[in-house]
Amino acid sequence: MDLNFTESAKDLYDQVEFKTDSIYNWPPPDPFITFSIGGAFSLLAFVLWVRRVRVLYQNLKVKDYSKGTIRLRCWLTAYIENDCALFTCVRMAAQSFLFLAGIQLNYTGAFFGILGVFTVESFCDPLRVLLCFREAVFIDDLVVTSKFLRADLRKHPLTTTLQPHNVYEDLTRDSFIVGMVFATQVLLIGFVLIDLFSTHTHYCLDGSSGCPVGGTLGSWAFYVLGIFQACVFLLGPKSNFGQSEQNAAYWIQLLLTTKQSPTYTWYDTIDAETKFLKVKSSEWKHWIRFYMSFLINGVGFHILVHALPIQIASQSSLVGVVFRAVGMIYLVNLDDSKGYVMAIVPDDDDLQSATLQDEVTDDLDDASVGSVGSVASFYRFFSGNHNGDNDVSVPVQAQKIIAKAQAKLDALQSKARPRRRRRRQHSNKSKSSASSRGQV
What we know:
The chain is mainly α. The protein folds into two domains: 9-155 and 174-249 and 281-333, no CATH class; 348-430, no CATH class. Helix content is 60%, strand content 5%. It is built from 16 helices and six strands. It has helices at residues 9-15, 31-60, 70-80, 85-105, 107-121, 124-135, 147-154, 175-198, 217-235, 248-258, 284-313, 318-333, 357-369, 376-383, 396-413, 418-439, and strands spanning 161-162, 201-202, 211-212, 263-268, 273-278, 342-345. Strands 1-6-4-5 form a four-stranded antiparallel beta sheet, sandwiched between helices. The chain has a two-stranded antiparallel sheet with strand order 2-3. A hairpin with an 8-residue loop joins strand 2 and strand 3. The chain is globular, with a radius of gyration of 28 Å. The N and C termini lie far apart (103 Å). Mean pLDDT is 79; it is low at 349-361, 363-383, 386-398, 415-426 and 429-440.
């Protein structure tokens, strides 16, 4: 397709020789009407956004919003958070109808506009992560502005574990496999964009060729249907009912813990052993994974979801609409894979060399694989509360695991050796045997 910034959908419509006089082939609403619909939705979205910002200010109750990045993060949260279905649908409809009006005026210009706008918009979520990383050292230092982030960071007080949800978050996964998945998704998303750019015309339902995308009433209606489907993807089970595909909570936890130079430990079920990963504060591999996730689950996901109406509008059959929607799901799900649960432990050089390592990691496996959380001392390290001032309630079934692991960790920190314990046990046995002989 040549770069043509002057040809409109109406110009292409006048050149089409339709085979039938089907309602699908009728002219669409005028671009001015489409633009007016988008403008009305935009005004409503702005009003809802201002209201959401005010609600955030009231709920946070921060004395001075000029300090730090709280105000900026509130603005970003109010705009990108999908915790309100009404606001998400209104925002999506406003953007989509404005772009539909642009497509009717000139497909090429509108296409580049869509790429630019949603590439910039996809920066909002990683920007929040970077602002949190810059502003805090521990999780407890953060003023969390998002309901979803607050739920993920606070719902388990004792949890100091990380649960990856895709290959980019999974630090236990081999880098070669991660690179293969990344290259595959980049290629497939690139193919979709090339196809979208080159198919500004399509076949109508009656087989008429050269029909402009968004330039017939049927294509215009399919585009509106695509808006609804995109809202379902943003708010339905695919996104865990509104949560961001980029999983900001995970990256905030991971990047903040790297400031403490911790050790990650997990139980590898394939090798049947507990493994360790020592992390330095200047670890660059984490940042590579972060930016890979941003490019795929941020830029790629945004473009695919918001370009779905265009893909639907270019279909020439009802089955093609289904195939487009299913194909989009496959692309964004290709990297989804829950990895091993990684427990975060403090920086202790003796952790791997001490003789009690196996016993402690067994308890860590029990605590991290289950749903009860981890050891309280790990929570104090992770949150910055080294004195243990937080009053946290421990599930009854977890008390034994926590007490046992805590005792062994205390022994590790004091550099106690199991040899002493064995000597003490041996001496106790000797005393008991001697006393028993005396009684006899």
